[in-house]
From TrEMBL:
It holds the Pfam family Glutaredoxin. It comes from the Eukaryota. GO terms for molecular function: 2 iron, 2 sulfur cluster binding; metal ion binding. GO terms for biological process: hemopoiesis; iron-sulfur cluster assembly. This is Glutaredoxin-related protein 5, mitochondrial. InterPro entries: Glutaredoxin, GRX_PICOT-like, Monothiol_GRX-rel, Thioredoxin-like_sf. Residues 55-120 form the Glutaredoxin domain. Gene3D superfamilies: Glutaredoxin.
Length: 156
C-alpha cells in the first residue's frame, strides 16, 4: 500500500493528468505519452520496460514538460519525425530508476533512447542520426514512417 501511495504522489508531482488502470506488474500509466510513474526494481524490469514499446525514452521530465535541454531536444527530434507514440519514463521521479537505467545501458547520461529494446544512445547520438538521415532509416525498420520524408517531398 505504501508503494502505491508513493507512486501516486510521483504521478501527481509529474503533472500527469489521466491515469490508466493499474497494470498487473504494478506500474501506473498516464495516457498522453504513457508515462510510467512507478519505477523498476531491477535489471529484469528494465529489460522488460525497454522492450514493451517500439520507442522508449528515459528522460528528465515528461514529453509535455521536459526538465532539461537534452531531454527537450530528444522530444523535439522525435516530434519532427512525427513520433508521438512512445513510452517516456521520468527519471526525476525515482532515483533508483535514474541510476538503474544508467547501469543497465552502461551509459552515464540521461536522456536515453531505445528502439525495439536496443539502446540507441543519448541526445547527441539521436541528433547525429537526425542530421545524417540515419534516424529516418531506423524508424522505417520499426515500421514508423518519418514525417521528415513528407516534408522533404513537399519542398520539391
Amino acid at each position: 500500500m505504501n508503494s502505491l501511495l508513493r507512486s501516486t504522489a510521483r504521478c501527481l508531482r509529474s503533472g500527469a493528468a489521466v491515469f490508466l488502470p493499474r497494470q498487473a506488474d504494478g506500474r501506473v500509466l498516464s495516457a498522453p505519452a504513457r508515462l510510467l510513474c512507478a519505477a523498476a526494481d531491477n535489471q529484469k524490469d528494465l529489460g522488460e520496460m525497454v522492450k514493451k514499446d517500439k520507442v522508449v525514452v528515459f528522460m528528465k521530465g515528461t514529453p509535455a514538460q521536459p526538465m532539461c535541454g537534452f531531454s527537450n531536444a530528444v522530444v523535439q527530434i522525435l516530434r519532427m519525425h512525427g513520433v508521438d507514440d512512445y513510452a517516456a519514463y521520468n527519471v526525476l521521479d525515482d532515483q533508483d530508476l535514474r541510476q538503474g537505467v544508467k547501469d543497465f545501458s552502461n551509459w552515464p547520461t540521461i536522456p536515453q533512447v531505445y528502439f525495439n529494446g536496443e539502446f540507441v544512445g543519448g541526445c547527441d547520438i539521436l541528433l547525429q542520426m537526425h542530421q545524417n538521415g540515419d534516424l529516418v532509416d531506423e524508424l522505417k525498420k520499426l515500421g514508423i514512417h518519418s514525417a521528415m520524408l513528407d516534408a522533404e517531398k513537399e519542398s520539391k
